[in-house]
């Protein structure tokens, strides 16, 4: 009986340690970006929006002269943080149309300073265009802009 008590104690300690290791800690295990608790206000073309680490502005929207329904959105980003800011035209910019579909970001040669995969160093400003292919007979309505290491995201009316 005396040998069973230490064995039982060891078994309980091991069981508790395994349970402790397998539980999710929402503070450390959550890989989703933090949700902004502030109400998101849509901004107008030309406005500069401070995203707590970057200042961003949509300067212009234009339809490209191609057979398909492709629009170019001119964006200017200034890194106001103290670390590099990664700008990825596939991940950071979501264009929505007037029928609530999402435009596809594409590589296009008709752009003035194409934004693709760029690193913006602290204090630097980057300006260029992103092309979006839309479904037939739709027009751009909004663009959502968010960056990985920046505290907020924003929406611009187009």
UniProtKB/TrEMBL annotation:
InterPro entries on file = DUF4352, Immunoprotect_excell_Ig-like
Look up the signal peptide feature and give its range.
Answer: 1-22
Domain (DUF4352): give its ranges: 43-146
Q: Which Gene3D superfamilies match?
A: 2.60.40.1240
The residue stretches assigned to a coiled coil in this entry are none
Establish whether keyword Signal is in the entry: yes
**Domain of life of the organism encoding this protein:** Bacteria
PROSITE patterns hit by this protein: PROKAR_LIPOPROTEIN (PS51257)
**Keyword field contains Signal:** yes
Q: Which UniProt keywords apply?
A: Signal
What name does the UniProt record give this protein? DUF4352 domain-containing protein
Query: Organism, per UniProt?
Result: Clostridioides difficile
């Amino acid at each position: 009986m005396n040998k069973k008590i230490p064995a039982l104690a060891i078994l309980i300690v091991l069981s508790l340690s395994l349970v402790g290791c397998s539980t999710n800690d929402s503070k450390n295990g959550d890989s989703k970006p933090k949700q902004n608790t502030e109400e998101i206000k849509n901004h107008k073309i030309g406005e500069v929006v401070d995203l707590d680490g970057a200042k961003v502005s949509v300067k212009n929207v234009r339809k490209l002269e191609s057979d398909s329904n492709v629009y170019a959105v001119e964006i200017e980003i200034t890194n106001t943080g103290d670390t590099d800011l990664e700008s990825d035209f596939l991940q950071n910019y979501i264009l929505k149309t007037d029928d609530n579909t999402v435009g596809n970001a594409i590589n296009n040669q008709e752009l003035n300073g194409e934004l693709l995969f760029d690193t913006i160093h602290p204090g630097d400003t980057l300006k260029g265009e992103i092309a979006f292919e839309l479904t037939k007979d739709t027009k751009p309505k909004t663009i959502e802009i968010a960056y990985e290491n920046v505290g907020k995201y924003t929406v611009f009316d187009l």
